[in-house]
Amino acid sequence: MDEPEAMLVIPHRQLSPDALTGLIEEFVTRDGTDSGYTRGSLDESVAMVRRQLDVGQAVIVFDNRTQTCNIVPAETIKTTNQS
């Protein structure tokens, strides 16, 4: 069973512009994942993820157990928190 504090949502506007861009770039170019953002250029993919963060369709999460960040659909977090 997941602990409530195991996953923290990090408001993307609290990250510096450089940190946010770096996180998004790492996410869209990550090996071994099919993020669905590989069809366009890196700039197009970063802009798409940034728009999703801006409108609340995606969120940044930090996993305390693995000490890693990820970008996930916002509905994933809402569903998990309601369980």
UniProtKB/TrEMBL annotation:
InterPro entries: UPF0270, YehU-like_sf. It holds the Pfam family UPF0270. Belongs to the UPF0270 family. This is UPF0270 protein. It comes from Desulfosarcina ovata subsp. ovata. The lineage of its organism: Bacteria, Pseudomonadati, Thermodesulfobacteriota, Desulfobacteria, Desulfobacterales.
